[in-house]
Amino acid sequence: MKKKAWLPLLLILLACLMTSTTYADSHNKWGFNNKCEHNQGYEKPKPKATSIYYKWNGYAFGEIILPNGKSIIIDPYYKNVSSNEYNYTVYSDSKTAADPEITKGTDYVIFSHNHFDHTNDFRYLLERNPAAYFIIPAGGVNSFFYNFGVEARNINFQPFENYDYLVFPDFTLETFRASHTKKIKTSYPADLNDGRSADDPLAYLFWNEGTTEYFNFRITTNDGFVILIVGGQYKLDPRMYNYVGTEPDLMIYQMAAVNIGTDGIYYGDRSAPLPDLIAGYVASINPRVAIPGHHEKFSVDLMDKFTSDLADLVPGTNFPNPETHVWYKLSKRPSGKVSYMMETPL
């Protein structure tokens, strides 16, 4: 009997070896975690036939039309993205996010953070539909209303915090604090990047809170179409476990300069973007369709090549390159497959 005393220990050791995972097992070849043990028990909706429409209007500004026709506007800032080196459709700079040629509706407006290139057209949308839901990071609401000269009691605003789960009449919204891109240098601006003086404490707070109060979103329509909007600095994202392996129907990834370089920390070359970091991040999430956002500083030809490179690296995901101001319909089949085509909503 004494000779077999080692047997229980051997069995325990074998069990540990069988259940443990190595770094290579749990991370894809780009170093991003591809296991989903920690995404808070997320359950993907069961596939069924449904569809949405999406249109990119430049910068991070987009519009989603839900199956019932309601509109969700993301980060409204309209500016002609065709000037100088930009190579997109030319529209007049006199237009705003509230112009009928730019957006179809204003039922919901979601702000990822307070920077001017994500919020600038707020007042135009408020004038267009004072009854709309305006969904704003809770940590930045005071400076937000101060900068736009609006009293909170006069609008239908919904503040949100990290790991909020908001149930609206037409969709649910999950919010996740993220890491805004960093320039890896210390500076105090004499003027903010929207032209206001940094000497105004609340104006400076608005600008700074745009960096500290930055969020990603998961939108799930009542019909079960899942949209994941993820920005910021991917290599330094400590909360990506929220998205890993969740397989959204549509993912909008950000073409930030830090995400197209070699290390994910310092800025890459916008004239020669590298796809590896974004490919690794997208592969860990495994969406059906992934489209770029905030890519106004890249030409159409360059983005065509970039998305083609991504498709080669992540063959399980479709990587279209949407034209600005063009509507696309994304249709989901009961099998879970998502198709993508140009089509204008009625």
Task: Kindly describe this structure.
The protein has helices spanning 7-19, 23-26, 116-119, 122-128, 141-148, 201-212, 276-285, 300-313, and strands at 50-56, 62-65, 71-74, 108-110, 133-137, 157-160, 165-167, 171-177, 215-221, 226-230, 250-254, 289-293, 327-332, 338-342. The model is unreliable at 15-21 and 83-90 (pLDDT under 50). By secondary structure, the protein is an alpha/beta fold. It has one domain (50-334): Ribonuclease Z/Hydroxyacylglutathione hydrolase-like (Metallo-beta-lactamase, Chain A, 4-Layer Sandwich), CATH 3.60.15. Helix 5 (141-148) packs across helix 6. The longest helix has 14 residues, at 300-313. It has an eight-stranded mixed sheet with strand order 6-5-4-3-2-1-13-14, with no helix packed on it.
Give the number of domains: 1
Unreliable stretches: 15-21, 83-90
- Count of separate DSSP helical elements: 8
Q: How many DSSP-defined strands?
A: 14
Rg, please? 22 Å
Q: What summary fits the major beta sheet?
A: 8 strands, mixed
Give the CATH topology: Metallo-beta-lactamase, Chain A
Our measurement of the CA-to-CA distance between the termini, rounded to an integer number of angstroms, reads 80 Å
CATH class: Alpha Beta
Instruction: List SSEs in N-to-C order.
Output: HHEEEEHHEHEEEHEEEHEHEE
* The CATH superfamily title: Ribonuclease Z/Hydroxyacylglutathione hydrolase-like
